[in-house]
Structure formats: C-alpha cells, structure tokens
Amino acid sequence: MRSALAAALLLALWAAAPAAAHVIASPAFLAQGSTQTIELSVPNERDAPMTAFTVTAPEGIDIASAEESTGWEAVVEGQTATWSGGSLPAALSETFGLEIRATAAPGSAELEAEQLYADGKVRWPVSLTIVPATGSSSSGGSGLVIGVIVAIGALAAAAIALLAWRRRKGPLQEP
Predict the structure, then answer these.
(1) Sheet containing 80-88: which strands, arranged edge to edge?
(2) pLDDT tens digits along 26-49
(3) Could you give the C-alpha distances from 74 to 11, 99, 120, 155, 173, in angstroms and in order?
(4) What is the pTM of this model?
C-alpha cells in the first residue's frame, strides 16, 4: 500500500512539474534528510543573452554544491549558487546541476531562481516537494501523503484547464 502511494505521488509530481514554472527542477521532489542532485532546466525567453544564473535556497534546504556547466563557472556562497562567465543566447536552454539537502519537514518548498542579463534580471520560483524519508514511520504519514497527492492532482487539473483555455482563445471557426 505504501509503495503504491509513493508511486502515485511520484507520478503526480512528475506530471505537474512542467506546468509550475519557467525554470524547472528535475526531479522536483526530494526525501527529507537526503542529499540529492537536481537539474535545473533554464530557458532564455528574452531576446538578449543571459549572462549569469543564481539560485537561492530557503531555510530547510541547504546547497551542498553546484556543478559547472560547459562555459559556466559555478560558485556556492551560503544559500546561493551562482553560474557566471557564460552566455546563453535567446531561445536556447541550459541545464545546471545543483546538489541540495532537505532538512525541512515534508511539504512544499520554493527555490528562487534569477536570470541575469546586461539590461536587468528576471526572477522565477522553482517549486520542490519534500517527501517523508524512506522508511519513516509516523502516525500521520499516510494522511500527509494522501494530502500531497490530492494537492498535486488539483494543480495538475488546474494546469490542464489553463492549457485547454489557452487553446480555445484562438478565433472560433464556423463549420
């Protein structure tokens, strides 16, 4: 039963993550107390090249290290990782690796991503979900997992409704 709930939770998180933000973490979940490397998919949606990228973690998530990417130098200072020295042209994407540790209680958490350009910056929230540690046994664990699954399902339904609405915005055609 617990394995089925965990599998359903992982599937729901995987399906809902792309609809959540412009900068996307993969995987978008990590177990409480674990250290894991996540990949941040960063698209440049502006006309100018991106010159640097930073990620700041909230309390309860610690940045252990940042992986260098081709042409980018990675530096970690406290709760912030910065990639600089590279250039990401318009309409292209880059993937940055970040090793993080979740010390917060299970639930949602948000990293703050910032794309820097010669003429300014753009900030994006990066949603993560901290799940109970594998093998943890607490009396309310099942209720939390079910609650998270219901919340993720609601987010997925909202994302699907938004996509359907956006497709209908085009001109109506008469038969």
Answers:
(1) 29-31, 120-131, 107-117, 50-56, 80-88, 73-77
(2) 999 999 999 999 999 999 999 999
(3) 31, 12, 20, 33, 51
(4) 0.67
